[in-house]
Amino acid sequence: MLTLLIWKGWPEGSNEKHTPEPGQSSHTNKYVLWSGPVIFLMLSYACNAVGFVPHTVFWVDFISRGLHRGIEAGTRFWGLLGLAAAIGPVLTGAIADKIGFAKSIKISVLVKAIGVVLL
């Protein structure tokens, strides 16, 4: 439902295919799929997942059983984590529109790292 609600909010041209035009060699195409920055970004996301996924998987169990707070408290925190996971990318995108993608992703990963360290 949210996708339908914001569908008209996508920037013009953001849904165009970035593939070589017919007759154009892929070597002359300015879009390179496996460039250094793309590989670095993929590695960054992989490391991000390795560092963060265990926290999300065991978060509810730790709160409910480890801290003896019960499943209700664990569920509330799980909902809060889900809300943050939904808002984070939108906020990062809005920041990227203002200061650029590179700075925005660095800030978001730093904030996420601080969140992991706090836990």
Could you please describe the fold and organization of this structure?
- The structure is a single chain.
- By secondary structure, this protein is mainly α.
- It has one domain.
- Helices cover 71% and strands 0% of the residues.
- The protein contains 4 helices and no strands.
- It has helices at 2-6, 36-66, 70-99, 101-118.
- Helix 2 runs antiparallel to helix 3 (70-99) and helix 3 (70-99) packs antiparallel against helix 4 (101-118).
- The protein is extended and about 65 Å long.
- The model has no long low-confidence stretch (mean pLDDT 80).
Number of strands: 0
Secondary-structure element string = HHHH
Mean pLDDT: 80
Inertia-based shape: extended
Strand content of the residues, in percent?
under 5%
Q: What is the helix content?
A: over 70%
Which sheet architecture does the biggest sheet show? none
Poorly predicted residue ranges? none
Helix and strand composition category: mainly alpha
**Rg of Cα set:** 19 Å
Number of discrete helical segments: 4
| Straight-line N-to-C gap | 33 Å
Instruction: Please indicate the count of domains.
Output: 1
